[in-house]
Specification:
- It contains 13 helices and twelve strands.
- A hairpin with a 3-residue loop joins strand 6 and strand 7.
- It is globular and about 65 Å long.
- Strands 1, 2, 3, 4, 6 and 7 form a six-stranded antiparallel beta sheet that branches. Strands 5-11-10-8 form a four-stranded mixed beta sheet, covered by helices on one side. A two-stranded antiparallel sheet has the order 9-12.
């Protein structure tokens, strides 16, 4: 989207108001029924409040520390109205504003509607938690965990799950002595390996959803309302894309994207390739051949604009993966601002491709 639009709406990111006193307790009692008695203690004040719901700390009668997530009442009806309004506004904006047309606003409203409506059913999030925990276990990722839902305490509007340690990476104490580059490498490897090897990944890795335990240097991933899933063919295409991206190869990127069905096989892509290559050539000006995550985030944003300008409609799961790369820009800026992103990703890709057991090379 145009930069001035992004800046104008930046305040929306983290200023969601808390529910009125007692509302969360009423929803929990109604949704859980007799299972509510398993909650020995529930904090009256929210641990965090978001646009979809808010979470409270709690404790079960068996001593398990938990987090209770509550959906905002009436949200489905309100979202339907908001999405209809957004669709009309996007269509009108595209008629009068060249920047809006190039951003393909109507396409993004459609994607937003799909993602938002999926988040309104916490049973889907619980399924994402189970799948993601299984993937992390299969990876042997002791450094990265996801909360487990509590059996019998999951409904459409309430989700009770384990409480995990950590603080948002934006709140890390710079004097804690953490190895920022190692933390960054560990985090990227977890995300890339889960995506390419298993095809399941967290779809919304903003700062509030990535908690770091400074004592152990480990990650807790929370809020799995959005998750990405890729088929074997899509994972192979993504490997091809990342390899082309690391090599500044615009044509290779476009060919890789064909595997996602976003571009027809017989489509003329020369203009798109030329525009992409012009953007990629900007990377050649980097000092000493290094690219920081901050620079990468800016470049990826420009690439997405080029794709939208040419009518390229990326599938939801590919958008989620790209969005995570942009979120990792913020992560790198906090823990390792001078990291060479291409070197990090290239090393991880080479390790995965060289490992016969990874499944990536086979795909």
């Amino acid at each position: 989207m145009p930069d001035e639009w992004v800046e104008a709406f930046a305040w929306c990111r983290d200023e969601a108001p808390a529910l009125d006193a007692g509302v969360a307790h009423d929803v929990i009692a109604r949704e859980l029924g007799p299972e509510r008695d398993r909650l020995e203690w529930l904090d009256d004040g929210p641990l965090a409040a978001g646009s979809i719901g808010q979470v409270h700390r709690g404790r079960l009668t068996d001593g398990t520390e938990v987090v209770v997530k509550v959906l905002r009442p009436g949200l489905r009806r309100r979202f339907r109205t908001d999405i209809e309004t957004l669709a009309l506004a996007a269509a009108a904006a595209e008629k009068v504003n060249a920047g809006a047309r190039s951003a393909n606003l109507t396409g993004f409203v459609e994607l937003f509607a799909q993602l938002a409506l999926e988040e309104l059913d916490f049973r889907l999030e619980a399924a994402n938690l189970v799948d993601s925990s299984a993937v992390l276990e299969a990876m042997g990722a002791d450094h990265m965990v996801a909360p487990r839902p509590i059996p019998g305490m999951v409904t459409e509007e309430v989700l009770v799950m384990e409480l995990l340690p950590g603080v948002a990476y934006t709140r890390l104490d710079p004097t804690a002595g953490l190895d920022g580059e190692e933390l960054l490498r560990t985090g990227i490897r977890g995300v890339v390996e889960a995506t390419l090897k298993h095809g399941v990944f967290h779809g919304d890795l903003h700062a509030g959803n990535v908690l770091v335990d400074p004592a152990r240097g480990t990650f807790s991933l929370v809020d799995f309302g959005i998750a990405g899933r890729l088929t074997a063919a899509q994972r192979a295409g993504l490997v091809q894309y990342l390899a082309a991206w690391a090599g500044d190869d615009a044509r290779g990127q476009i060919e890789a994207m064909r595997s996602f069905g976003a571009i027809e096989r017989d489509a003329d892509v020369e203009t798109l390739v030329d525009e992409l290559q012009a953007e990629l050539d900007l990377l050649s000006t980097r000092s000493r051949g290094e690219v920081t995550f901050d620079q990468l985030g800016i470049t990826l944003g420009r690439l997405l604009q080029v794709l939208a300008r040419n009518g390229f409609r990326m599938p939801k799961d590919l958008v989620l993966f790209f969005k995570n790369l942009l979120y990792l820009a913020g992560f790198a800026a906090s823990v390792a601002p001078e990291a060479d992103v291409l070197a990090v990703v290239q090393d991880i890709l080479l390790d995965l491709l060289a490992d016969p057991g990874s499944g990536v090379a086979v795909a």
